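Aim 2 progress update. The chain analyzed this quarter is reproduced below.
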Amino acid sequence: MGANYTYYQDTVAAHNASAEVPQNGVKKTTTLQSSRYKTKRQKLQVVDSSDYIAPRQQTEIHSSQLEQNSLVLPNRERDYSGHDWLTIIIFVTIALFASIRYSYAKYIKQLLLSLFNYATSTRMLNDKNYPVFHAAFRLEAIFYIIFPIFIFQCLNLFKYQNTALTPVYLSLIFGGTLLYFFGKKVIYLTLGLMFETQNETREYLFSYDNFNRSLSLIFLPVVILIQFAPLKTPVFIAILGLIILFLFNIILLRRGAIILLKKQFSLFYLFLYLCTLEILPLLLIYKVVV
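Predicted structure tokens:
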């Protein structure tokens, strides 16, 4: 009897447990349906009803962040139309310099050293290294191309402003530059014959050519900066080029004095010799430019 009674209790408990499950499911279903109904009801609320909450409208947004001043570089607007031929000339000079830079780098070092070392200049004069003549010729070509452009740029900046650089003007300046330099060499050779200083004159002209070749290495970047640098005014670059030209001429005069004094040349004739052909032309060029 006890065993049957225990079994009966388990059966009743199991029956009651199984009966409670549907009841809980009914409650959960009723709650879910009620929440869905409320959500649907909220969606169907009328705007003018008492339960409706109007959204907040914000028309303007003010920012308290300060504007930072940006860095503005100076700009020089220029019309480069019609200057393609000048760009080609400068490109050719750069190509000539590149061929020298990688083929005759040692010669360039000796050339720059000869400006301040007289022994190096004398050794280069006596050295008959014919391959070096190719580098010297290219440097002279660069100088006689770049220097007329620099002269016109100075004229354009200091006197004849807003003047278009045309091939005609450049040809005139180029012809005047060749006439000046080669005419001065002819005068030097003539005076050397008159005063019987052919060897000293030849040495001085060799130093003179070395100075021009060295100037070609300096004036090439100067001309490029004056022509294409995005600056408000490139006057200070032109002034820097003129200062370099003046210093080179001072060093050249010193070299000429050293060479001619070896011949026990009279100081009066030395002063007349150098000032007439070196200082006077510079003064004339300054007068024309300024």
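Residues 1-30, 43-47 have pLDDT under 50 and may be disordered. The two ends are 139 Å apart (CA to CA). These observations will guide the mutagenesis experiments scheduled for the next reporting period.
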